[in-house]
Amino acid sequence: MTAARVADPLHEYGPLPDAAPTDAAHPLYGYATLYPDVVGAGSLQNALQAVADRAGGGLAVELTSSPGWRHVAAKVEADGRSAHVLMACGVRSLIVDCWAHGIRMASGSTQDLSEAVGAMRSWHRGSRVRDLVEQWSFLRTWELAEAHERGEAVPARWKMMHQVAEAYAERRREPDWRALVEAAFEQPRLRALSPGKSMYWLTFRRRAEPPICRDLPRTRPLGNGRFEVTFADGRVQEADGAAAAVAVVVDGLPDDAVPPPPGS
User: Fold this and answer.
1) How many whole angstroms separate alpha carbon 259 and alpha carbon 222?
2) Neighbours of 95 (CB within 10 A)
3) Each residue of 131-151: b (16+ CB within 10 Å) or e?
């Protein structure tokens, strides 16, 4: 009998299964010591499904879309929601991510298959994110995720952009970013869009969740009060001052970017 198949009664996670792979090329070879329960089941999907079946309720655990993860990752999906579980390497940790309509809403890790299945089941059944993290303490959420759930993601993203701009002004001594964000926020048509930061660019999107649109103008500080605006067709225009740059962005918005303001 090989060492890989010797049962160790002192092992924290149970004895190594008789089916533990001995071929180093096997996808589960490096997981046998830390995940004997998963290795014994043949894959994470099988292990999670067995736990779910014992608990009842008809939860169907699926493979992920990545062929390379078919042994070490699994998911459940329903009505725009999904919960993904991935086995970490080098330490026993089941990483659980809960998503809704392309937005990650909660995340955490546990060593316990039953806890992972319980969280997946709660999310699958439509639990609100705050209730989810209160029920499953290994999970955490954040302000933006809860704002998405309330339908207030755009105001929350503007709040974050103001915080980023303040940090740039105070810590990096870059006041142009703060001036740019403040000038953009004063414009109703831009305030209705979802702001973002991509490298040095202030970007705008029609929505705060996927799919991401890339046809709206974006702008960035150049230094010394100068700004650049780039359009989707590749045109570039410079402006003197944040207000002027923002005016160029507003003028370059497609007609269908946002609803026109009342009374226009």
Assistant:
1) 31
2) 15
3) ebbeebebbebeebbbbbbee
Give the single-character DSSP code of 62: B
Tokens at 189, concatenated: 């048509």
Place of tokens 């969740």: 209
Cα 235 to Cα 203: distance, rounded to the nearest angstrom:
15
Helices (H) then strands (E): counts for the chain: 9, 10
Instruction: Please check whether residue 83 is in contact with residue 99, taking contact to mean a CB–CB distance below 8 angstroms.
Output: yes
Question: pTM to 2 decimals?
Answer: 0.82
Contacts of 94 by beta carbon, 8 Å cutoff, 6+ apart: 85, 86, 87, 88, 109, 110, 111, 112, 113, 115, 116
* pLDDT recorded at residue 7: 35
- CA 120, distance to chain mean position in Å, is 16
Return the amino acid letter for 205. R
CA dihedral sign of residues 29, 12, 119, 90:
negative
The number of beta carbons lying within 10 Å of the beta carbon of residue 39 is 24
Nearest Cα to 182, choosing from 166, 197, 196, 205?
Answer: 166
Residue pLDDT, tens place only, 186-218: 999 999 999 999 888 999 999 998 888 889 999
Q: Are 5 and 26 in contact (CB under 8 A)?
A: no
Cis preceding linkage at 211, omega within 30: yes
Residue type at 70?
A: R
